[in-house]
Amino acid sequence: MVKVSFLTLLIAILSITTQAQSLNLGVCDSMPDNFYKMKLTQLSIENGQGYCASYPKYLDKRISKFKELEDLTFLDRAYFAEGEQRTLPEEICELKQLKKLKTNAFNKEVFELKQLEVLELILGSNTELVEKEGFKGFKELHTLKLAFFYPEESMSLKGLAKLPKLETIELRNPTQNIVDEVLQNHNLVNVTITQTKGLTFDFSGCPNIKWLNLDFNELEEVPASVYGLRNLEVLSLTYNKISVVDGAIGELKKLTNFSLFNNQLTEVPEELTQCWDLVYLMVDNNPSLTSLPQALGALKKLQHLSASHCNLVAIPNSLGQCNDLRLLNVSKNKLEVLDLDFSGLHKLVNVKLSKNQLKSIPSSFFTLPLISDVDLSENKLTSLPNELCNMRQLVSLSLFSNELRLLPEDIGHLEKLELLSVYYNNLEFLPASIGRLNNLRSLYVGMNNIKVIPESYKNLVALQAFEIQENPLTTYPSFIYDMHSLDRVWVSFSYTKLPGYKVSEENPKVIVGRDKEAKQEDDGDFNFVH
To answer: pTM of the full predicted structure?
Structure first.
């Protein structure tokens, strides 16, 4: 047995108690009594209005004691209510190990921290200080984030173009002068500029950009210089007013992610299918978009295709050649027929086809081996093949608001199923095999023509939410009171007159009302699928 001396043990304990620490103080936290005795490498402090007794926390000259501090966040949002803002103490400039700073309460001494590598400033009424000091001294800075609130139109910043290590820049609501200065820095790799209006962007001086985010800028067209960024991998143009994308997009051969969510697109150019490295394509919320490129199948690396809330009337059958596809979301379109061979899409995991006008689903769809999440709700389906029951990885199956008359008898083979939603159909019977679904947590069968809930459902040991209302039940499923995991049951008022009904406020809580009203009462953790 190894003997340890008392002195050795004491030294070990002291070493543990004095080791570098991290400390995060939120709006509702107060300063520890031993605050300035702590050996901190990371510190985050936030003041503001919270749902609590908000304790003001301010740093004073003793901040100089934090000799090893590397990462500091200090946000003072209390001044919005009090009309006064306190800044960081002058001694901030003594923190020679500080590498990362985020604050909205800065002073001129912050600009003496020449060793900073990451700087994030939120600018309100303190823009004059930033204009005066500039950034030319930050030779180690590789990441700069600036958020402006109502800056003067003429505002400019010095030194941004010549920062030698700057690779990442994020600007929120900047002026044209600031944008022009930044885009002269040829070292930039990651650029985010958001919440502008009427500004122009010239990226010709930034040939190394790989990541470009121009969300929320009210752009009516893609800036022409974007097409010259041959190293571009990620391009996000969401929440703009773009109607046309130039065919030059096909020259961006390294593009992997392209998002045009919530624009005014009328078409997606065929040339996009020449971006052979594309993995992620999102064109949702473009109501004037009626079609996708016919040669979509050329995108062999495509994993995520999302084109919901458009007005698509067809899906290119070439999509069946995108063998790496994992997610397909074309919900809320005008699809009446799905002319697509799914047999080659063996990596598909998530398929959303809801809110269309589909009357049938291709048989090849039911051969998908890995699919776990399927949403076919709000279509015109009248039946489903028994092959559905071979999709053994299914976790979530939404079929509500269709015209289904029957469910496959062997649906109980979907042993991983956790959610089954079939309310608002034309079902008269429920398969007894559903009672074998030991992982089922949520079952919605309301608003059908069901007269009897199978007795086997009492074996649903994991069931927590059970909706049965608005059915012409002749027998009340009194076994629900013995289902120990069941949390809530939605029933119609007419059921209260059936034998076996009794009021229950918990385990389970029986909620009496119509479908919509009952769901609005729910404040639990269950995710209702509409």
So the answer is: 0.90
